[in-house]
């Protein structure tokens, strides 16, 4: 028996990277899963690769989390096609890094819209189902960059905003059987960090090695590391944990 048998889990931005790794873990543990991503065909293709257990299903839905109509329509499709919603993972993300003096209005707005507005819109759409059924789990993706990172004024502000948002969700929704937590990953090997290497003109393997050496456990993280923490925080074993941000970063920000 899996921890997520009979549960319906939505993961945004899950066609690849941390989102796909997390969706995979929920599927392995028995959940039916909706993969949301900008491109519906990529979302559907990723859904088709999930290791579903008997009786579970998966769908891919095209959704721009920063658009209210799109976010609401996606949640309603999940409820009508999969039969409900129990877990929401707000994972979709982008970076538009630049030093402050070179950062454009668009760089700022785009990052705020996907991370903060996106998490808000998706959560607002899901919470009406959670509150009605007196059960729900919300997991938001923050980042170690919330603590400050050169070239990421927009992203670090959004990721610290996610932590405040998560605490408030914990306060408001706790009485209705809903837990909300966040994970702040350190360096995770995905296309997002590969793109950062490319932007900095550093070879991907060198960039990973550099980041591995910068933390106490001397390795980079993988989507599976985040997925394992997500599977705990969204489980009933964690029902007394809410409003928290768990740093999953190999100890990168300890010292
Ligand atoms: P990734 O590989 O770039 O994947 C992000 C996914 O989100 C992509 O499939 C992307 O689709 C999708 N997406 C972007 N904008 C969207 C929107 N408006 N609506 C729906 N989907 C959208 O990133 P990742 O590394 O897996 O990161 C996942 C999350 O973890 C992000 O929130 C990120 O900020 C956070 N995080 C990552 C790291 C890391 O080291 N990788 C560290 C800390 C936190 P397209 O490909 O179509 O753009």
UniProtKB/TrEMBL annotation:
<dbReference type="InterPro" id="IPR002347">
    <property type="entry name" value="SDR_fam"/>
</dbReference>
<feature type="domain" description="Ketoreductase">
    <location>
        <begin position="7"/>
        <end position="186"/>
    </location>
</feature>
<dbReference type="GO" id="GO:0004316">
    <property type="term" value="F:3-oxoacyl-[acyl-carrier-protein] reductase (NADPH) activity"/>
</dbReference>
<dbReference type="InterPro" id="IPR057326">
    <property type="entry name" value="KR_dom"/>
</dbReference>
<keyword id="KW-0560">Oxidoreductase</keyword>
<dbReference type="InterPro" id="IPR020904">
    <property type="entry name" value="Sc_DH/Rdtase_CS"/>
</dbReference>
<dbReference type="Pfam" id="PF13561">
    <property type="entry name" value="adh_short_C2"/>
</dbReference>
<comment type="similarity">
    <text>Belongs to the short-chain dehydrogenases/reductases (SDR) family.</text>
</comment>
<protein>
    <submittedName>
        <fullName>3-oxoacyl-ACP reductase FabG</fullName>
        <ecNumber>1.1.1.100</ecNumber>
    </submittedName>
</protein>
<dbReference type="InterPro" id="IPR036291">
    <property type="entry name" value="NAD(P)-bd_dom_sf"/>
</dbReference>
